[in-house]
Design brief:
- By secondary structure, the chain is mainly beta.
- The protein has one domain.
- 11% of the residues lie in helices and 36% in strands.
- The protein has one helix and 14 strands; from the N terminus they run αββββββββββββββ.
- It is globular.
- It starts with a helix and ends in a 35-residue tail after the last strand.
- Residues 1-22 and 175-195 have low confidence and may be disordered.
């Protein structure tokens, strides 16, 4: 009897262990070349089980960060732990083609990374990115950067890189302290009529 209980316990632990290791992450890095010498680099991760689905959304991400520069000089950054109730936060990633959705029919504003369609809500000292119907562009210090704009339909690929490491403020988790209260979550803003 004791042998059977030990075997059952060992089998149960083995199943739990297998379940824990099957939650694999897919990690991607990306680089966006804007106008006027502006560049944005970043990375993201999500549960690898989502790779077989059609779309990965902002709420699916476990890690995310972006860092901007102009002619090699840093101009700002944003990371997932900075998310709060006021943040514009829309992300649409197409894992089967390894690219972010861009403007097109049915996708008026597929990306709003700490930046709404007016390009002015990234905050004082803030940094954001947006793809809408007018352009792909950046927000720096609460201001739309017109010089950064490129056509809204230009492809925006990402590269799978499971060795990618993230800054500490890029990832969610039980111990992450973000600006979101534990009982609320950001609601997408209705941005269909702007950029």
């Amino acid at each position: 009897m004791r042998h059977r209980m030990n075997a059952a316990l060992a089998g149960g632990l083995l199943c739990l262990s297998a379940g824990a290791t099957s939650a694999e992450e897919a990690r991607y890095r990306f680089e966006w070349q804007g106008g006027g010498g502006y560049v944005m680099r970043g990375g993201m991760s999500f549960d690898a089980d989502l790779l077989s689905g059609g779309i990965v959304m902002a709420s699916d991400l476990t890690c995310f960060f972006i860092e901007g520069s102009r002619d090699g000089d840093p101009v700002g950054r944003w990371a997932l732990s900075m998310l709060n109730e006021e943040t514009s936060w829309v992300l649409t990633f197409l894992p089967q083609s390894s690219e972010f959705a861009v403007f097109g029919e049915g996708a008026m504003m597929p990306q709003a990374w700490n930046m709404d369609g007016f390009g002015t809500d990234c905050g004082a000292g803030g940094f954001g990115f947006n793809i809408g119907n007018a352009a792909q562009d950046l927000c720096i210090d609460g201001t739309l950067i017109l010089a950064s704009q490129v056509p809204p339909e230009r492809p925006f690929p990402a590269l799978r890189d499971d060795a990618l490491s993230f800054p500490a403020d890029a990832c969610t988790g039980p111990l992450m302290m973000s600006a979101l209260s534990p009982i609320s979550s950001p609601q997408p803003k209705d941005l269909t009529d702007v950029q």
